[in-house]
Amino acid sequence: ELVATQTPVPIGWRRDSGGDALARAAVETMLEGGVTREESVSIAFLASPELQLALEDLEIARADLVKASTPPNPVAFLGIRQTGGAFAAYYPDESSSIGVMMNVMSLLTMPDRRAIATHALERQRFVAADQITSLGVRVTEAWIDYAAALRIMALRERSVAAARATLDRIVLQA
Known about the structure:
Layout: H1 17-31, H2 37-47, H3 49-69, E1 75-81, E2 95-101, H4 104-173
Antiparallel strand pairs: 1-2
Helix pairs in contact: 1-2, 2-4, 3-4
């Protein structure tokens, strides 16, 4: 969410092998016929297992927030007590009990657990955004280095060709 508008390809958590297959197909398509800077960043986003791990951690933080926001399940019970036994002094006759129990401490601590989970989710959002941004920067730097190396190589080849042409002229004049 924090960096989605600044990325050349949609970033998403791939939950199954179908998503992985679509990502691989998209990468294969982009690799045909050379790669631009934007395509190199897109390929990195689609193929990065570290990025998928960060997105998975983000989904886990979201699930933790849902868990912290949900009250605990009540427990229902039904019981029949026979006469006699250890509690015969308290329950001399046959009795039956029906009830519902709820963990009161879980209810009381729910706002605090929700606040903690909200902060953890926000932190994980920033961690994922940092990883996305860092990956984009590293790939862009590598692509620029590669493009610069290609230009330097082309310039050197032109220099060698010019030096050979000059040498050939000198040899022919001599």
